[in-house]
Structures
1.
Amino acid sequence: MSVEVVDFRPFLDGSDKEKVADAILASFKTIGFVYLVNHGLPEDKINVMFQWAKKLFSAPMETKQLAPHPPSGAHHRGYSAPGREKVKQLGDESGADKLSDNSPSAEIQRDIKESFEVGREDDGEMPNIWYPASVLPGFKEVCLDFYWTCYETEKAILRALALAFRLPEDFFLQYHSKADNQLRLLHYPSIPSKVLENKNASRIPSHTDFCSLTMLIQDEVGGLEVEDPNRPGSFIPVPPVKGSIVVNAGDFLMRWSNDTIKSTVHRVRTPPSSEGGNTDSVIPPRYSIPYDSDTVVDCIPGTLSEARPKRYSPISTREYVMERLAANY
């Protein structure tokens, strides 16, 4: 089992749309993840966004805290220091990777990351939290430009997904017209490799995303792993593929598809290049940029039948997402 690499260009240029759409859906049904190459996100904008991420996270902590994430998870914007967010799996009050009885939780390091979150600027319920212009001049403008650039790619992927279900291409777009998405800049600081020797330690613990889908841009360090759907507890590396973005289905899309699509458990741990090294070695810092996606939705047409009855009741996307966000803080 591995994550498929799909060339998105034939969908974008119209030369073979159904083949690309079917390949994406097939990968979503088997493992819930897919690499997209020739995805349409401009490489220069990606590089600039990574440069800004490195500039932000290399600033002193007192500077980064000038745009603090509010104490409540109901307002998911601004800067979160390492350890601030505790990623949880749905229905798990203690966190996704449960500690063994003989492992003191105080000695286990998890969620070893820091982040900065951005949404659409006109969101009255969850306004963005920016740094003073004098602190990071130009940062706000670059973030918002990249946010809307990602939205165009998201819409193209949603059109492909609709086509794969043999629905009108705008089927999913009607539910994503508000662009209620989230752009995250993530930094996993450099740490001694011995920190991650314990299987319960992690840069980000095992979890599923709770949105419709996530587009992830990785740097060259690696460390992303996806659970093998056929072998629970066994993880498959998802190393960086040059020029690609990683797209994965979230819990909401799995629910929406009546469990036709998989929302797969994944985590960030030791990069492959660091495995087997001595305990005094240092794992390099890692940067990534995930882009996640008050309408009531029901099952996608064609995903329920007498043999596969409806498994979920209709739900408000806003209600669902806010409940899941708040659980992490």
2.
Amino acid sequence: MGGLMRRPTIMDIAKAAGVSKGAVSYALNGRPGVSEETRRRILAIASDLGWAPSSPARALAPGGRIGAVGLVVDRPAHSLGLEPFFMQLVSGIETELATSGVDLLLQVTEDMGAEIAAYRRWSSERRVDGVIMVDLRVGDPRVQVVEELPLPAVVLGGPEGVGSLPYLYTDDATAMREVVHYLAALGHRRIVQVAGPEKFVHTRVRTQAFLDAAAQAGLSEARWVHADYTGEGGTRTTRKLLAATDRPTALIYDNDLMAVAGLGVAHEMGVDVPSQLSIVAWDDSVLCRLVRPSLTAIVRDIVSYGRQAALMLARTIEGKPVANSETSRGELLPRGSTGPLGA
């Protein structure tokens, strides 16, 4: 029996143990009907054969749990693997799920239609017990789709635009205001936010907070531009900005990849950081600490963020009341990439 190439079945276990299929079922599901000695022997044989319940079988078991949750990330695959934010987020989710033996089903798409199709397929095929939704969009069509499916979900984002779904959000506006006032206090007036894609809610929140804080600080030349979170996008955008006659003296990047790329462009074009240009990265990472000068950054506990999301989803799946929650706010951590203008 040890040479089975296919997935072992209950019948295989029954033959190896010399018992009925019913006895195996009783033993595997912890139900009465077999002696304790027989139960232990059956479980040992099942383990030796590498038997594991299929997802449909687990779904039909008491409680109807699949033992898996889903996460779809709608980003280009080549850039996703380089972005520390999602690696830390997944690490946090996995850490929490591992304590209860639940698997994470991760799918990468480059199209919202494909993401919605994944939710529909997972729901109809009973592939997952629930999903964690990321990158909340403006007028996000995914929210209504998931609400209508029999698929528990938690949204990372909000508080607006999440419908009836429970959400976990971060107050990005307060952190952005802190960054702008910090740069203004260092003497910077031409500050540019290199924002992420306009379709994301958190991009709009940060940009509005940037503009409000700039107006409050009297920075009439402050402005924003959109980029795509990739290193290539950060490079192209920074070259255009630094080649302008009224080039900025401070740049705030919406992620660490773009900030590191921007620092490289500044070196390439002979713009000294920080005496001629200050750089701030959103979400600290090992990338920010490895470059020289090291990057001033917004620090958040992303791993904890992922764990909190997984906990909320577990409660949602169990049908327990789930309170919407706010993560700990990001904090500005000054490093070598920011300083007084001209110093």
3.
Amino acid sequence: MAATQSSSWSDLQPELLGLVLQRLPSLADRVRLHAVCRTWQYNARLQPLPPPLPWLSLLDGTFLSFPSGEIHRMPVPDEACCHGSIDNWLFLMNNDGWCSLMNPFSKAMLQLPKLPTIGHKMDNPCPLFYKLVVSSFLDLSPESLVAVLIMDDGFDSTLCICQPPISTDAISRLSGDKIYDVVFFSGKLYALTPVKLFLLEIADNHKCEPKISSIKCIIDSVDYPSMIDRLTPNSYLYARWNYLVESGGRLLLVARRVGVLLPLPEHNVLQHARTLYFEVFEADLTTDSCCRWRRVSSLAGQALFVGTCSKSLPAAECGLPQEDCIYFTCDYARARPAPDPLRDSGVFNMRNGTIAPLLPETRVVRRVGERCPTWFFPSEVM
């Protein structure tokens, strides 16, 4: 006698459900799968999954899923303003200057200290840029260590070391230079100035009161000869933005070249800028050689997402169509963000030097607020 075939979706075998989930890199699709029934929700949580693809946060509670561009909304509290993100946490600040991190899925909160204000312009007294980095996966434990880079529109900067909810140490310059980016790599904190890389040692007893115990310059120059050769210097006015990214056990410097076509427009020069090229360098930190930057042509199977929140993800595991690609947003026009938050965002292919649109179809998204969009990396379905 033939076996009776089940007609219930809840009877789908867990191993088959796992195969379906492996083909759903989008968090939105995973959320929908969880919502089918309680059995699927339970079995789905038992499956080992690659990280979902990031969302693009517009900092007003609106998120764009990647790469579909589907819109999701998870409003922030009324009394708070979102100034950025770190992993799957949003960085919030209230009117009194007190800061916190909020997971928009679980609504969990992590209190941060009141950070210094470094803006100098009378019509814009608040900093325009915050970047948060953590030494390990951020949770609600009292051992979480957070570094916060604060920068205003004049690129004056302050780096704060926090043991939430306490801020215990801060520096403004390194050897007289402004700090452009920071990252934790192999448990150590690194900071980048326009041309130098510094190692900031944190005292061993940081669990009680973290302090920067020493500062050492380990790489004192960066050379960009190949990037200059690829461009036509008489056609553009150039600027460069650098990002530090930990990627597959490597510390990378991602150099982004932005240009404005000459002759320059009379107003809002950066609104006419566009990204022309990227170069990637790996920090050679071996003890038996002179530390230096070494140019690389491959990301070793990783995809880089750079901006005010930068991260590396395994391209194939996440379902991305190509390796050796850099996904970027427009994070440099901080004082006057463009009406279109997707302006000058895209995908740079390191293999052929081409740039493709970030989303496959043109989507007009109205900007709400005055902050640049940031990458948001949901780690799990809540």
4.
Amino acid sequence: MPSILAILAACLTLSLPAAAATLRLESGVESLSFDSSELLQHPEAAEIEIAADPAYRQPRRYRAVPLASLLSRLAPPEDSALETVALDGYAAQIPLRAVLGTGGKEGSRAWIAVEPADAPWPAMPGKPAGTGPFYIVWERPEAGGIPTKYWTYRLSTLRYVASPTARWPMMEPDPALPGSHPARRGLTVFVTQCLPCHRINGGGTAMLGPDLNHPMNPVEYFQPASLRRYLRDPASLRHWPDQKMPGFTEEQLPERDMESLIAYLAQMAAQRP
């Protein structure tokens, strides 16, 4: 009898439909929810080809919905940005101008790729999980200068927010610095490349990496050459079991951007509260 019950229970489990995932869009007190099964049947859903998927490091095909189409359901507040929050605590800040355009035949276009509940995507190279249940992917990212940090996988929430410096003024370089100071440009690089995983002076949403100015700043415990090497290839300096930080290639972080970023970090160390 126990074995028969076990077989019946297993058959019942296999017959149940796989659970759909939910994506949230938030704006202050307002919010909307999108069910993955509904999105797969969305009127604008389409099969798209991604020529160079940075998460899988190869071409991929997805069923996806234009991101601009979902955002049109809830108007953004004036002067807001889009925060894309992942299940693991990753949180990128994406300018709305980058995601609201349709891209045309030549421009970049953002899509929400939707993982079918009954056909999960494969694990990413070197990682235990795939990019689902939702993944922001881009057609022709090179046309709009879209960095890989804007490809948020394991997406759970889209959120309209104020600009990073309006939310967290503690990340601003000293106002007395001249406009040409490299730390000012370095702030922009930091917001794009570092803020999705790190905080600085307590400012930020991400939960993946440590604060980069408390209790110490990387410029204070890395020699200059070692810090540059660490940014390019962290594993070449040290290993730890749950290492998540990838290196930045020259294409992802050009030398000029690296110099500006390091200048910004040095400035924040000097003015640490």
